[in-house]
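name: query_chain
kind: protein
chains: 1
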Amino acid sequence: MLYLFYSPNVLADEKWVIGDIRISGLQRVSAGSIFAVIPAEVGDQIDNYDIRDVAKALFKTGQFDDIQMGREDNTLIISLVERPSISSIELEGNKAIKSEDLLRGLKEAGLSQGQVYKRSILNGLALEIQRQYIAQGRYGALVQVKTESKPRNRVELRIEIEEGEVAVIKNINIVGNHTFPDKEVLKDFELSSGGWFSFFTNDNRYSREKLKGDIETLTSFYKDKGYVEFTLNSSQVAISEDKKSVYITLNIKEGNIFIVNDISIAGDIPIDESFLRSLILIKEQ
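structure:
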């Protein structure tokens, strides 16, 4: 939040020459970095509008919770309250995902040790960790972030995680498969709605990555059979209210089947044509 106050002299619109600049409240941030960003220096003529520009430049750095400007004779006074930095991020309760993987995901989302701490980042931090668990099918994962103040204006973040169980697939529904029955279309899927061996194979445990692979398998299934216009119109993943069950729906359009009527080999090739034809996997109909 940005607060400004001015002495009666500063409120005047007339220009005055900066004889000195006094900065207070710095802990982590160096005075040099302040002088590097503000559009004013000793010897400049400034007025009220110029002082506002100085405050705006400091605000844009994102380093401060409070910025106050004042004047004492010909000295420009800048009083600052720094935002703390993140001293460390501690994880508790994570077993399914390694700490280094969670921290890597947080860093990619812009949350890491040494970053300026803002209260608003807590929600983003929790959501990023939940996103990683949702990718594993753990829709019931709970994340709580606690803070602890440390010396030198730093904050430690402690993240407590309840991973929950991986959601179980109750049904995979293919809509639009008029030529092939569900059983044939789904036979090569890595995911399934469960069977006798699911306890050992975990093939009924939902995973976003596995679903992507199964969609590629479905596409190959049709195109290998001549359905070159096959398209996946949409894929929906519905979660039960208790977040323990998953229902997958794939809406497809098979398209027309294309048949090879003739294969011609052209060109002056010093190889027996019958041998070349034996290497071609596509057969004439």
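note: Residues 8-82 form a domain with the Ubiquitin-like (UB roll) fold (CATH 3.10.20.310).
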